[in-house]
Amino acid sequence: MDLRSELLKSIWYAFTALDVEESGKVSKSQLKVLSHNLCTVLSIPHDPVALEDHFREDDDGPVSTQGYMPYLNKYILDKVKEGSFVKENVDELCWTLTAKKNYRPERNGRPVLPNTDSFRLWCLFNFLSEDKYPLIMVPEEVEYLLKKICMAMSVELNCMELEDCINQDAVQQNGLTVWVFLDMMNSGKLTRGSERESLSMAIEKVYMEIVGEVLKEGYLWKKGQLRRNWTERWFKLRPSTLTYYVSEDCKERKGSIPLDHNCCVEILPEKDGKRCVFCLKTLSRTYEMSASDTKQRQEWTSAIQTAIRLHAEGKSSLHADLKLRRREQREQREKRRMAREEELQKLQALQGRRR
Known about the structure:
There is one protein chain. The chain is an alpha+beta fold. The chain contains 13 helices and nine strands. The radius of gyration is 25 Å and the shape is globular. The termini are far apart. The mean pLDDT is 88.
């Protein structure tokens, strides 16, 4: 999924939240405010002249989604530069608008989820939802996400409760909206017995992995280039970089290693009293690191190799690639199912003619 598509999903929620009368249209004054705020969080120079010209007061009535799209594309999205803004800020702006109108966790009694967790689940939902509007998440993707959250807590998903939720007619036909999904999570039935703190930590971990594109993070020992001493650093691996910090709060960055198809990872023998050693070779330098045990070394080397492969294949997101593969598998299963039904109908018609 490209950056524009990701941004549009969040902005769609913001636009529909401003559609108070649910007529498919939003007042020009509200769109001016939304556009100004989007320019701010996207680090785009705001053009008030173009905005006023596009939404002239003598135009008839409020603006529909289709009417807003030309302005949104030309004056905002076409000017977006990847890396020049923090996408989480865009998501938070849009979440604040849509949650104010649509999110009512208290209607199910005491909510299980604090606002931060609800926001992160909303972002995860957007990422895994189908790329069409109105946004829904198919049951298979719901199960995939919930299994990852439960795995992060080392508990089993309550499959019976999930099946009951998915078997509802509206869900079966259309998939889940984000509000139905958040209601399910706030019911506590799917993660029954889990402590709030454990659930929050699991949601954060899955959010960082899928939305934040963190393939792996943790402490490693790193050998210095000049002093050649070993220092423990907190490493964070994303598809394009391996960054290391003084500690896990990530406040003080010590370095960043760009990853591309020229990089490779090698296992090394015990060195300087350090076990589970491996190295990352780039065109300019070789980085030596040591993991806590062989399992961690295997996980790190595999994750780094995955990042290198993604770059070689021209892909910027592991989970966008995995989502596409799951969708293709669902489509293939559906084609096979339809082919079997067609064959069965032909067979039944043939048998009917023979009688």
